């Protein structure tokens, strides 16, 4: 400053024009830190590597990049005055700024207006902003646009961005490179498909705020330790991402220990969780334990609890008491099955608790229409509950073959109602023809209740071996019957189950 003054004094006293020394004057002006500098093209000096997350015409054409983010530099007194003006503006919109007292905010109303309008164009309302007013402390250029750009890049639809922010507004404070990218890489490391990342995060956006070395890693490690296949963790997370936020000591382990105490081996539990990960979300004290006590109160034997849960894991999370009461009354009224018989039905096919009553009545009415008395139909259902889930069209075909081709008495169906569960074309007809050719007369049980290899051994034998107990059927999930006959439940298959089947196919 002193040098500049001395230089100007020299020119003024000697009547020398400054225009003759343009280059020297420009050089001196650079020595003055307070001289006015030309505007830079990129005042924020955005690095090239962050360009994928900047707002471009192709990304957010409906928004214009703000020209100012924080306003002008002010002194302490001016800041207080500006804050009052900004707060008055927010209050005029219906926004309560109490939580913003200690937050650094823009110094002008124009910049704050840009933020509010940007958020509202995403679909947020004034109530949404009031639920988390700290989002107003996020710069549109430095925070909001990079985060939204990255979310859209990993699969969150633009139309869902507002809903995503409504669910988890804290994501606006996250660093794309340090935090968001790290969580996505962690999910990919668990074998979550790239196309499913957006779905998983929309379902449980709080994952973006978790520490990788904390709850998420611990939950995965514990599930693997009890026998869950590591390759199934990805589909499990896709189906039910909330398991990554569950604490092992207070949520997962107590649930596993309780189910093991009922007689379920850990290996069976692991298979259950691989297909129905949402079981972990059932509240142990409020739902699971009361449902187990409810099963016992309705006559299910304690030693059968493990089998019941393994066949139909969802039963421990249903509003069970109301369902059991309704079905038990229906079985007693329409099928003439007493509560003790209903308990035996539950032990063999617990899915019956969720069957529509009109579905149950169709096969029952078919059997009654064939001249079978109600008490015998009740005995058949208690012995083979899967009958009430069969399609009547298939039962008719099997029945007419039994009567016309095989020429057997109804009594044999009463003794072996499982006959209706076998495929007519792939098992009943071929085996009947083999027996007819050899001139062998045997019971339905002896003919059908064995593997193909065992059936051939029986045909080659010189004696009729002792008949074994009735067949056992596959456990777990919805009851799948022969010939693609599937139990109909109160609720249709959920999106989670559809997605799970797609991810593991």
Automatic annotation (TrEMBL):
It comes from the Eukaryota. GO terms for molecular function: nucleic acid binding. Residues 488-497 have a biased composition (Acidic residues). GO terms for biological process: developmental process; DNA-templated transcription termination; RNA splicing. It comes from Lupinus albus (White lupine). The keyword Plastid applies. Its main location: plastid. Gene3D superfamilies: Transcription termination factor 3, mitochondrial. It holds the Pfam family mTERF. The keyword Transcription applies. Keywords: Chloroplast, Plastid, Transcription, Transcription regulation, Transcription termination, Transit peptide. It is found in: Plastid, Chloroplast. This is Transcription termination factor MTERF4, chloroplastic. PANTHER family: CGI-12 PROTEIN-RELATED, EXPRESSED PROTEIN. Residues 484-505 are annotated as: Disordered. InterPro entries: MTERF, MTERF_sf. Belongs to the mTERF family. One of its GO terms (cellular component) is chloroplast.
